[in-house]
Amino acid sequence: MAAHVKLSGKWKDVKINPNIFMGQDFSGFVCMQELADYDVIQSKPVVKKEKQIDEKKSKHKEKVSTKRGLMSADVHEDSATNQNLDIDHPLKKKRKTKHPDMNIIQPELEGKSDSVEKHKDLLNVSSKIQKQASLKKKKFKCDKSQLTELTDDKKKAHDVQDMSAWQNLFVPAPVLTALAEKGFTSPTPIQALTLAPAIRDRMDVIGAAETGSGKTLAFGIPIIHRILELKAQAASAASLGLSADEVTSDQDGTSGLSSDDNCSDKSDTTDSEDDASESEGDNTESEDDTTVSEENSKESEENDTECEKKPTTDTLKPLYALILTPTRELALQVKDHLMIAAKYTGIKVITIVGGMASQKQTRLLRKCPEIVVATPGRLWELLQEGDDHLSKVSDISFLVIDEADRMVEKGHFQEMSQLLDIINSDQQRKEKRQTFVFSATLTFVHQGPLRLKFKKKSIKITEKKKLEMLMVQIGMKPKPKVIDLTRSAGTAESLTEARINTTVDDKDIYLYYFLYKYPGRTLVFANSKDCIRRLVSIFNLLGCCPLPLHADMHQRQRLKNLDRFKSNSHGLLLATDVAARGLDIPDVQHVIHYQIPRTTENYVHRSGRTARASKEGLSVMLVGPEDLQYYRKIMKNLNRDEDLPPFPVDKDIFLGVKLCVSLARNIDKEEHSLNKKKHENLWYLRAAEEMDIELDDDKLLNYLGDDWEQSQSRQKLENLKQHLKSQLNLPIQKKYSGKYPTKSGKLLQSSYYRQGDAIERLKTDSKEKCVIQESNKVMTKAKLSKKKRNHRYEHTEK
Ligand SMILES: Nc1ncnc2c1ncn2[C@@H]1O[C@H](COP(=O)(O)OP(=O)(O)OP(=O)(O)O)[C@@H](O)[C@H]1O
């Protein structure tokens, strides 16, 4: 507290609306208190106080801008001399792409003389934006000096980061600040190769790189860069006295925008944009049910008030970018990633996805966000309803199709081709637009089913043909930049893969064994919702607290489960392929394919939920007899000459957990059949009631027994549960000791059962196997030479 203020009252907590912090750099800020009663011993003029703060700030800004100035000077120099990234990039030298003929459709990069000017503009914009942000901060009635200190500290921390690896990639200064804050000190390979052609040369980009390699920012940063540029141009045109219409049509060709901005609510509807085989139910969710939707509701609250104010100029604001993703969760995640990068730019990003109240989304759209991330179903719906902001989709400056191979799959998204028709309807705008198409399996070409191979008219799809088809479908410009960093193995480099051969019946036991022995955040994939439901029930009984995720669940619950999974380092998520693509859940250690995916692409994407951002991860396939053909197909399509290594299983523990699993399965079976019978009876009773028919108990569809029989079966179920509980409480040695003798006949040391690292265990096992193989070889060699010697000896004796 300042020395000239004498305290005569008490500090009181100040209630603040958390929305005021949105988009502001206040992390580290703990609480706000006010002191209403105090005596001033020696008053200082307020102007002087503010002057001091301003001086402090300007000194800091000088420091920051000198540093940034140096960096951007480097950028200019390099862009002027036009270092051709495609040829000279060290990453390219180190890493040979799988497709050397890719250059056929890659034009040479040309330096652009105006790049220096553009970047000067950008720096101006960034400093303007920072000024605006600091002005905004002043609006809050709080201890300004305290806040300045906090933000200054943070900025100092950013300046300490060495961000030189981003040089020459044209990353705008405010984005660089946000990246530094996030600790992203260098670009990932796909980012390093995409940014220059996308930003400097404004090329369309087709990008393929392994899962978890940072593709989101590879398209996100160029979009943010260009939006800042367009906004700067608009601002300078406005300062020259041009009208808003002239400005927008000058810069982006946006025109004919309706200013009808009424606040009428639109009804919520169902959608089915996710995995094609899964139809989804919609829900009417409350605003603050999950952390993710909480964020949405915060946005919408803010927008409610905004909406009442109805800023008419907002409706004239262009929609700059549209990003389409196959799932709702992915759309929300892409929005989050972009918001992190755009933190200091003032650019707004919103999501338009199914399963969430469309009224809120309509309200958010009224704020005219620069970027919309959407799933096709809901986007189409709101477009059909005539949303003003969305009606600008044919004027967008950027179109991104994330997970593009999935998005344009035949018959997958009905709305996709209609959407593309509208987006591409204006030929002039289409030519000006920049399009990004990304996926980990974009350039992935493999043989179709054998029966198609021998069909007369079957066309052999090459990688080039696949991309050309994609370009036509999406409406890309003729010569896009194609960046393919995928390995021929398909999966991420840091991924360890293994298999467990099993019978269908034993899959549950192997899964429980794995979860028991290797706790850690684990994502289990199955092919159907029914399978997920059964597994959830069994693993709940086994005390594993599984979280389901499939397309039949309410969106609210889906997001809740995802959040819970993210926050539990030992979490277990049981999911269908709705979670296979794009989800960036931090530190998933294991992916288990309880059922083998039907396509190789799905295997790559499912496995890609672990081993992200160069971290290690393990993928294990449980291969039953019915899975064998799919397993072989995946191995063939991924050019694997050898089978995946078998995951080592300690038979003793396996036997120890077997009893628990079979008890849980029995309980589940009993409960399931009882519930099914009850459900059928209820349905029958209701139908009878509707027809005014009275039914006796013995006339129901399923006879559940008399009262005594029913209490007996309840008791039986209860006993089974008690038995399972006592088994689960036993240490693993005791579970099998006596009943299941070990191979050696000895009771093994407890350390043997220590829960541990699955990848380490697999590696040790393969090393041990190598050593055994080597020693076997040596022994056979020794035996052979001994035999030879004996033979020679016998020969000479003769
Ligand atoms: N330059 C960077 N430095 C460090 N981490 C980064 C960088 N860029 C992105 N990341 C992080 O890498 C992770 C993966 O990024 P992202 O989700 O964009 O991958 P992706 O390639 O789109 O994966 P998928 O193919 O599965 O969709 C994210 O957690 C992201 O925050």
Automatic annotation (TrEMBL):
Enzyme superclass (EC): hydrolase
Enzyme Commission number, as recorded: 3.6.4.13
Residue ranges of domain Helicase ATP-binding in the record: 196-460
Coiled coil region boundaries: none
GO MF annotations, alphabetized: ATP binding; hydrolase activity; RNA binding; RNA helicase activity
SUPFAM superfamilies membership: P-loop containing nucleoside triphosphate hydrolases
Domain DEAD-box RNA helicase Q per the UniProt entry, residue ranges: 164-192
Keyword Phosphoprotein on entry: no
Sequence motif Q motif, residues: 164-192
Compositionally biased region (Acidic residues): 270-292
InterPro entries: DEAD/DEAH_box_helicase_dom, Helicase_ATP-bd, Helicase_C-like, P-loop_NTPase, RNA-helicase_DEAD-box_CS, RNA_helicase_DEAD_Q_motif
Recorded catalytic activity of this chain's protein: ATP + H2O = ADP + phosphate + H(+)
Record's compositionally biased regions (Polar residues): 250-261
Record family assignment: Belongs to the DEAD box helicase family.
Role noted for this protein: RNA helicase.
Name used for this protein in its record: ATP-dependent RNA helicase
Organism this protein belongs to: Paralvinella palmiformis
Origin organism lineage: Eukaryota, Metazoa, Spiralia, Lophotrochozoa, Annelida
